[in-house]
Design brief:
This protein is α/β, with parallel strands linked by helices and 197 residues long. The protein contains eight helices and six strands, in the order αααββαβαβαβαβα. Strands 4-3-5-6 form a four-stranded parallel β-sheet. The protein has a two-stranded antiparallel ribbon with strand order 1-2. The structure holds zinc ion. The site of zinc ion has 8 residues, from α4.
């Protein structure tokens, strides 16, 4: 039977995405065992983040400064804008270091089921950024889900009146993927997006 304090910590950790009660208990056990070197660093990191975390007023990214590090980086091309659903997508794309432009975070996706309409997302601010004439290309990097694609279609329509090139991430075969293991949707997308060799 764990003490009340340890139980409370387990319950807080269990609320984190990707961690259930079982993983949370294992994490707590690890922290208890490694408290001398792991706990002070963790406390310091949590403290620093809770003190300084802000949402970028330009792109919606989360960082320790506003504008965020990406918007403030003059080496990045301000004329190329990549639109994503969530902050996690910015981080994922940026980890790959392939995109040299800037981002715009919608803060979700259109969903009739959940009652999320255009006014609930950062769409007005996206249209403002594009209407300024400072953007040449908008890359729609929505998830390959029905709602993600609905959102991409909606944005493409709204952006049509502006003089920007609108592109979309290609969907297709994952690297290392075998045809036999793919679902029909992925196969169909890959076939539609075929190109000359
Ligand atoms: Zn930003």
């Amino acid at each position: 039977m764990a003490s009340q304090e340890i139980e409370a910590l387990s319950q807080s950790l269990a609320r984190l995405p990707g961690l259930g009660p079982r993983s949370a208990r294992r994490a707590v056990l690890w922290l208890v065992k490694n408290r001398d070197h792991a706990l002070p660093a963790l406390l310091e990191a949590l403290d620093a983040v809770s003190e300084t975390l802000v949402e970028c007023t330009i792109c919606g990214n989360v960082d320790t400064s506003d504008p965020c590090g990406i918007c403030a980086d003059h080496r990045r091309d301000p004329r190329s804008l990549c639109v994503v659903e969530d902050v996690a997508d910015v981080w994922a794309l940026d980890r790959a270091r392939l995109f040299q432009g800037r981002y715009h975070v919608l803060g979700g996706k259109l969903s009739a089921l959940d009652g999320i309409g255009p006014e609930d997302l950062n769409i007005a601010s996206l249209l403002d950024r594009v209407a300024d004439g400072a953007v040449d290309e908008v890359v729609l990097a929505m998830n390959a889900t029905l709602e993600g694609q609905t959102t991409a279609h909606y944005l493409a329509e709204r952006l049509e009146e502006h003089k920007v090139r609108i592109t979309q991430l290609a969907h297709g075969l994952p690297v290392g993927g075998e045809l036999d293991y793919l679902d029909e949707g992925t196969l169909a997308q890959a076939l539609r997006a075929r190109r000359p060799v």
